[in-house]
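Bug #77: duplicate submission created two jobs. Keeping one. Sequence:
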Amino acid sequence: MEERLLVLGGGGTLSVRREGPRVHMEAERPADGRGLYKVWLHGDQGGKLLLGTLAPENGALRLRRTLSVGALERAGCWPQFRAEAPLAFAFTAQPAGRWYCEQHPERLVADPLLRERLRGAMLCRREGDSFSLAAPFRTDRPVRLPVLFCLGRVERREGQMHMVWDFDSRGNPILPHKQEKRRTD
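Kept job's structure:
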């Protein structure tokens, strides 16, 4: 029987215990009342697997899963992987129209290519059924999302220049001419 304890990105631990062809996992993190947390496995070769949502239990948040080694291998998350438990849904809504720090902007967009490139915190603003993401911008540095360069605009945020991109409620980029049309309607 092989057993190991991993630190979850975002807080908490994941106990992994292999018994023959089965792998028993138990995730735990403190209950902070901020919202719902999901546990993800990320394989060293690019695989990704959702284990599930942590649930309240005895003053903490826990999740237990048993999977076959084969299922983990097919998902690209065995034998080497890391685990994270990001906040998936906040119980308190962010005020509309105000910028805030979004820790996981990749969860907001629809396109898999953008999800890969959106690792790391960004400024975010929600307005109606759309949202905007912003990243610091300098002419002497690479742009955070070069694939969306043509769809962005430069604005001053918190005393610094930022490239800003707009997205619809499904997480698809809004074309600038469509945005202008929406504003005038």
